[in-house]
Amino acid sequence: MEFKGFNLIKLLLLTQCLTVLCASEDFDFFYLVQQWPGSYCDTMKACCYPTSGKPVANFGIHGLWPNRKDGSYPSNCDPNSPFNPSEISDLTSNLQSEWPTLACPSNDGTGFWTHEWEKHGTCSESKLKQHDYFATALALKQKTNLLKALTSAGIKPDGESYTLSAIKEAIKKGVGFTPYIECNVDKSRNSQLYQVYLCVDASGLNLIECPVFPRGQCGSSIEFPTF
Ligand code: AMP
Ligand code: AMP
């Protein structure tokens, strides 16, 4: 009897452990991805300002993405952990200004935050629960004033073109870490500054040099559009 009971407990513990393991995915670090709204909005695809109004002319958060050193990344890790706005109600006004949606039709941002939480956030749930995930991204953005780093080096959102090396150097000098720069193209097919990737350790607390950069290339001359 005693022996059987012990086995039952062991079995229960094992299934519990497996459930936890299945819901948690491995990752080594995060990309903190920030986006220039002018470059999201001046492409062939339309953008729409959020219902709270036109965002300020600053970089906005796109996401905090768990990644692996081999360049791969987990996604959509936990269907049992849907986005729950009531868990982050204290962060809503900060999210509206720092993590603004630009998707159409115009909306309050919940759709964008839901997508980011469900695709990426659920993959770092072992380290950051929903409230901490959003609070961590907001705190990291505050530590990295990209627009100030760029403008201090004379790189302004004025529709002019700058070199990739000047942009990278300005951010390295201002923020302390080497960024990855992602470009997209405007309606005239000019390469422009779209997103800036910085790396963060798996705790979400510290910026680090990137263990691996995403693939992709900008033109040598990169436009910095107005917004
Ligand atoms: P992800 O799936 O996290 O790699 O993000 C890509 C998706 O986010 C695409 O569907 C984009 O259209 C969308 N997206 C990117 N920037 C924004 C934004 N500022 N507002 C709303 N959706 C966005
Ligand atoms: P390449 O121009 O491909 O020879 O790259 C030279 C260095 O710049 C490598 O360390 C690349 O990882 C890095 N690099 C290339 N493109 C980018 C980019 N868009 N943003 C940041 N670093 C880049």
From TrEMBL:
Listed under GO biological process in this entry are: RNA catabolic process
The answer to whether keyword Disulfide bond applies is yes
Active site per database record: 62, 116, 120
The molecular function terms of the Gene Ontology recorded here are: hydrolase activity; ribonuclease T2 activity; RNA binding
GO CC annotations on file: extracellular region
Q: Which residues form the signal peptide?
A: 1-23
Q: What residues form the membrane-spanning segments?
A: none
Family of this protein: Belongs to the RNase T2 family.
Q: Pfam families, from UniProt?
A: Ribonuclease_T2
InterPro entries linked: Ribonuclease_T2_eukaryotic, RNase_T2-like, RNase_T2-like_sf, RNase_T2_His_AS_1, RNase_T2_His_AS_2
Q: What's the stated role of this polypeptide?
A: May remobilize phosphate, particularly when cells senesce or when phosphate becomes limiting.
Keywords in alphabetical order, please: Disulfide bond, Endonuclease, Hydrolase, Lyase, Nuclease, Signal
Source organism of the structure: Lupinus angustifolius
From the broadest rank down, the organism's phylogenetic lineage runs: Eukaryota, Viridiplantae, Streptophyta, Embryophyta, Tracheophyta
Q: What is this protein called?
A: Uncharacterized protein
